[in-house]
């Protein structure tokens, strides 16, 4: 495929303006965003994205999971499309760039091609995947998982949020349940631009992360059950404090992850304490352990060690321990050809770059199972993400989108 000339770059000002116009929908309380999936705010953001796509001459389709596909035709009617995109949904206290950069960076590719009058042999499809974050409806990357055939669609529709509302019902309520069968599309390749969500690129002074692998993930929902008793009148030696079980398992998770450095991480994030009263000893604690590694044996070994040791810790406290797997995917290795296209793009543009492993899960990790896939990453300040203080520079965003542009357009093939 012919490569774009090194002088071809996207419109960084337009991309930056679009990112911050999208951020006006579902504003957070501290400068970020709360645009959780299938909320009214998510619906409003989708309408804005659709309008922008149609203004750029794209045809927008929606599948039965609500994922949006905006196509720019290619010159060859038989050529499979090159897909590019990410997600528009956010965490409850999310930043302005996580996911959004990848969707609007994809749109900016099309806008730039239109500006320059460039045609490609393969169509280009800009994608917004539904429910990447998984914060309202677990697990994460729900729609791309259904697309890739690793999550059952009926099961996905039955996922409930904290108020008991079902994914399928909420998808209909906001008006974004399409008729297209999920997963019927065939892809020539898929590219995703994302902020790193970690500190490595900034610390190393690199413009671009060429993502070679993703980390596998295991989410284990754990329940420690003790006995709820009055905090003032129950002797210390007679307590069955589920909160102590949480505390000691928190240390266990840290210990397990540290023993597998530098190739693993682990923490407890989501925690619910019952009855959550000031003067009642916790009778039950439900929490989720998040283990990740790009090495499958390491990942499975950490899960096995938790299952082996946690029950004994709780038994010693007079408590019981139960666990179940609520989210998982194995470590993906991205397509070598697509990865090389990203690397060539960074070198062609003269941007400093390094190979990197994605510490977070992304839609690209599922799509990698059904199409050649790669990711581009740009730095973020202090590695901070899933936080309203998440920040990147306009220059970082533009350079990431430039590399995305070159990798996608080279793969799609310039005509003429």
Tag the structure with descriptive keywords:
416 residues, alpha/beta, eight-stranded mixed β-sheet, four-stranded antiparallel β-sheet, 12 helices, 22% strand
The chain-level structural class is alpha/beta
Binned, the helix content reads: 25-40%
Any idea what the radius of gyration is?
A: 23 Å
Number of E-state strands: 14
Topology, pairings included?
Layout: H1 12-22, H2 40-55, E1 59-62, E2 68-72, E3 82-86, H3 100-116, E4 119-120, E5 124-128, H4 142-147, H5 153-157, H6 167-173, E6 189-195, H7 200-204, E7 208-214, E8 216-225, H8 242-258, E9 264-274, E10 284-293, H9 296-316, E11 320-329, H10 336-349, E12 353-358, H11 363-367, E13 373-378, H12 394-412, E14 414-415
Parallel strand pairs: 3-5, 3-6, 6-13, 7-12
Antiparallel strand pairs: 1-2, 2-5, 4-14, 7-13, 8-10, 8-11, 9-10
Helix pairs in contact: 1-3, 1-12, 3-12, 8-9, 10-12
Describe this protein's structure:
By secondary structure, the protein is of the alpha/beta class. 34% of the residues lie in helices and 22% in strands. The protein has 12 helices and 14 strands. The protein has helices at residues 12-22, 40-55, 100-116, 142-147, 153-157, 167-173, 200-204, 242-258, 296-316, 336-349, 363-367, 394-412; strands spanning 59-62, 68-72, 82-86, 119-120, 124-128, 189-195, 208-214, 216-225, 264-274, 284-293, 320-329, 353-358, 373-378, 414-415. The strands form 3 sheets. The chain has an 8-stranded mixed beta sheet with strand order 1-2-5-3-6-13-7-12. The chain has a 4-stranded antiparallel beta sheet with strand order 9-10-8-11, covered by helices on one side. Strands 4-14 form a two-stranded antiparallel sheet. The chain is elongated and about 80 Å long.
